[in-house]
Amino acid sequence: MSEEFTHISENNIPHMVEVGDKAVTKREGVASVTITLPASLLKELKASDSNHKGPILHTCVLAGIQAVKKTSELIPLCHPLPVTGVKVSPEIDEELSQLKFIVTVRTDGKTGVEMEALHGASIAALTFYDMVKSSYKDLQITDLMLLEKSGGKSGHYKIQR
Amino acid sequence: MSEEFTHISENNIPHMVEVGDKAVTKREGVASVTITLPASLLKELKASDSNHKGPILHTCVLAGIQAVKKTSELIPLCHPLPVTGVKVSPEIDEELSQLKFIVTVRTDGKTGVEMEALHGASIAALTFYDMVKSSYKDLQITDLMLLEKSGGKSGHYKIQR
Amino acid sequence: MSEEFTHISENNIPHMVEVGDKAVTKREGVASVTITLPASLLKELKASDSNHKGPILHTCVLAGIQAVKKTSELIPLCHPLPVTGVKVSPEIDEELSQLKFIVTVRTDGKTGVEMEALHGASIAALTFYDMVKSSYKDLQITDLMLLEKSGGKSGHYKIQR
Amino acid sequence: MSEEFTHISENNIPHMVEVGDKAVTKREGVASVTITLPASLLKELKASDSNHKGPILHTCVLAGIQAVKKTSELIPLCHPLPVTGVKVSPEIDEELSQLKFIVTVRTDGKTGVEMEALHGASIAALTFYDMVKSSYKDLQITDLMLLEKSGGKSGHYKIQR
Amino acid sequence: MSEEFTHISENNIPHMVEVGDKAVTKREGVASVTITLPASLLKELKASDSNHKGPILHTCVLAGIQAVKKTSELIPLCHPLPVTGVKVSPEIDEELSQLKFIVTVRTDGKTGVEMEALHGASIAALTFYDMVKSSYKDLQITDLMLLEKSGGKSGHYKIQR
Amino acid sequence: MSEEFTHISENNIPHMVEVGDKAVTKREGVASVTITLPASLLKELKASDSNHKGPILHTCVLAGIQAVKKTSELIPLCHPLPVTGVKVSPEIDEELSQLKFIVTVRTDGKTGVEMEALHGASIAALTFYDMVKSSYKDLQITDLMLLEKSGGKSGHYKIQR
Predict the structure, then answer these.
(1) Active-site positions of D?
(2) Which CATH superfamily is domain F25-151 in?
(3) Could you give the CA distance from residue C14 to residue D36 in angstroms, rounded to a whole number?
């Protein structure tokens, strides 16, 4: 077995890696995801008199928070973890015509919450797509990635940009 | 309320759109997602004598199939749908050094299965990330998008590329 | 066995009633639930300059919609049903100082969606409680009840008030 | 943002409150819910020779226990918590012609189990409704409320009656 | 690919078999499972003055019914199916000192409910084990098998004994 | 109430046993399950040139791992537990013509993981059945049992054979 694939055991079978001997520490994971918006959709979403931006983005935010809690159900080899806090922050960048969701997850646990943050981000973005797909089927979700991670033996990680 | 946001009702509140009057028809959705692989990971994954490529990709495929069935649990305003078949096809493009998952979902239902296909693709990709993240934290998941959709009143849709 | 308890079989054991011979018809269920608010909380919620009423009530609405889809998972003898539409309407009655959630659920199915509507209403109310409980632990949730039901052999039912 | 709404962040968006710095302590929550029974249903339920009271009430009790474990899946901003024990006690008050469910939940955790107790009570009551609704559609579920809470920084709380 | 393994596609990857072209028919599946009881446990369970047999067996029955509804969540390549009725019948055979659970599931669907019946039986048996394991860790669950199946193109199947 | 039935309270009602006072210790549970294979199926599965054995057994293994994480959702009176590692090992015994799955689960918790191991084993076996049932409906799943258990006050248990 290769060192790259720690989730595959020596006899070439997937397993859930044993983490019982790792320390319980405060851990944090931050992930983000990007959707580039056509001008008309950006305008609609930013309209100053818009009162529907609220429910659209709140729906994405809530979907992301709830998805964080379901991560170990969707990602087969993930450990179940007691998350202690979740933030999903939508950010609209008018210049780039982009909507981003930044998801921050914390736990006191034996493994990190990278997957939780990434899962929350992906579901926030898919929820947005779901709500605009009748008019914008060709939107793409991109740059789903880990921004930062801290806690645990491997220490602080921050993406190079 | 804007025409863009069909999931927000006239009094500015999210709702699950009523589809009871739509016809039950055969519907299909196809989505894909892309992960660009560093050379070392591509090599590892393609190694001709590799016997662990199997369990790595099978794990992604199975995660994607199971995610399809859970779509309406994760995407708040999605309708529950009885999917009749799911395929998750991993494709390795050596030239571009990319791994893609193409997900095809079918149903006999009153609404489409776009979200199901997209959800399956996103979870297949996140599952891959989970299994290589100890060595490759900076992998990005990109181009999560609908490729094609058929069935239902809005007819055939195919992405322009 | 008594006629009152159709979910208990002749040998005194719970079962899921067979509905295979019932017709698939359009069915609707409407339920409501009430929370009486202390004056300070009502004021807070109604404040004309309030911009947080949105996320508070949207959170309840989304929780109610998602709960509708999970009804057969929580109520042991409920049949799984493909809901075709869900509306959760919050209503603030200033005179009575009450918040109500009215939940309307539709399906094309072989059994009714009363439990789905009631479940959605109960979760919307509990979600509201969750968000104010740090200051208002003694709020009571009352009058969780079916308002109306149509479709199916038993015909139209409307509560007498 | 108001002090009443701790689940809404300063930028007016729902979040899961961070509890990582709170102490793990033994916590308990007790909730109850009431259903007033028509005379004929009370009689049926209390019939001394009745052997179906068992499965009816056991079904409610089990539904309540299982609901406790699913609380953080239904209430969007609830933290997942490892419950250490659950009791659901049905009580029939013949004088008032009422059925009550008292639910007691315990945990060793960083937040309380009020929502768990309330959720268990609501599902026990809805399960009862489900089993008698063919004859008693107009039953109302009332007085769903927290009776008592202990553990954690905010100390002991007991409802005033 | 072998004919035995219909869930593995020609390129050697698991998939959910497409059933969209199959007819919706009434289908039934019946499964059973057996637990051989030590004399002391049988006696305890059969004690004529026993009033706890009820809750023990009802708990198994309800667990089995609810498991039926979750089959496609647990068995990766199973189709989600709208079950129309479920019966879980416990049977105590004093001569053989055995407890059996017979599970009957019906649907109007495009695929059979064999897996649903088997899953319900396995969970009923495991629930029994859970409740007696403090005293009887060495109980074995055996003979989990399909007894009968009807509906669909492959016609009636009944096990030979 | 009998000593055998610790999950039934003194007033004859199921409850989730309180474990708050038990120590958090490393606990392990090992379970197994057996399927006797007809000669043709064994041959198919063992074929030296077979490249489909992989996906068949990987599907069972992944289903077993994911089932472990869902145990407290399926077994009504089970406590939710943070599993720290899971292994599902398929073993083919050519002489006995048997396929076995051995499931090992670990936790740092207040109760044991016997049910988790047993649940994982049962779902691995049912998943195998699902994939071969079109040709082999009469396969039986047998000898689902706890092999070993350690950690906690009751000490080490190992089945006598």
Answers:
(1) 130
(2) Molybdopterin cofactor biosynthesis C (MoaC) domain (3.30.70.640)
(3) 23
C-alpha dist (Å) from residue C74 to B120, C119, D55, F67: 25, 9, 17, 19
Buried/exposed code over A117-144 (b: 16+ C-beta within 10 A; e: otherwise): bbbbbbbbbbbbbbbbbeebbebbbbbb
Fold exhibited by the domain C25-147: Alpha-Beta Plaits (3.30.70)
Residues F7 and F15 sit within 8 Å (Cβ to Cβ): yes
A1 confidence band (pLDDT: 50, 70, 90)? very low
Owner of token pair 């901003």: D77
Cβ distance F118 to F125 under 8 Å? no
Interface mutation target, options F52, F56, F58, F70, chain B, most CBs of B under 10 Å: F58
pTM exceeding the 0.80 threshold for the entire prediction:
yes
Check E16 against B57: CB less than 8 A apart.
no
Q: Shortest CA distance to E64 belongs to which of F143, F80, C15? A: C15
Helix (H, G, I), strand (E, B) or coil at C6: coil
Is the separation of the CB atoms in B89 and E84 below 8 Å? no
Structure tokens at D160: 């005033």
DSSP state of E12: S
Distances (CA, A) of C88 to A101, B16, B55, C54, C85: 26, 9, 44, 14, 10
pLDDT of D81-124, one tens digit each? 999 999 999 999 999 999 999 999 999 999 999 999 999 999 99
Q: Tens digit of pLDDT for each residue in A83-131?
A: 999 999 999 999 999 999 999 999 999 999 999 999 999 999 999 999 9
Percent of chain D with pLDDT over 90: 79
Return the sign of the alpha-carbon dihedral for residues E126, E127, E128, E131.
Answer: positive
pLDDT of residue A97: 96
C141 and D149 Cβ atoms separated by less than 8 Å:
no
Q: What's the helix, strand, coil split of chain A in %, to 5? A: 30, 30, 40
What CATH superfamily is the domain A25-148?
Answer: Molybdopterin cofactor biosynthesis C (MoaC) domain (3.30.70.640)
Confidence of residue F152 (pLDDT cuts 50, 70, 90): confident
Residue C41 reports pLDDT greater than 60:
yes
Scored b (16 or more CB within 10 A) or e, F18-55 reads bbeeeeeeebbbbbbbbbbbeeebbebbeeeeeebbbb
- Tokens 């396969």 -> residue: F139
The pair of three-digit structure tokens given for residue F77, joined into one six-digit string: 């009176």
Chains touching C by CB (3 or more pairs below 8 Å)? A, B, D, E
CB spacing of C13 vs D55 below 8 angstroms: yes
D131 to chain E, any CB pair closer than 8 A? The answer is: no
What is the Cα–Cα distance from D67 to D27, expressed in whole angstroms? 18
| Cβ <8 Å between A87 and D9 | yes
> What ipTM, to 2 d.p.?
0.95
Cβ distance E12 to F54 less than 8 Å, yes or no, reads yes
What is the DSSP-derived secondary structure letter of residue F12? Answer: S
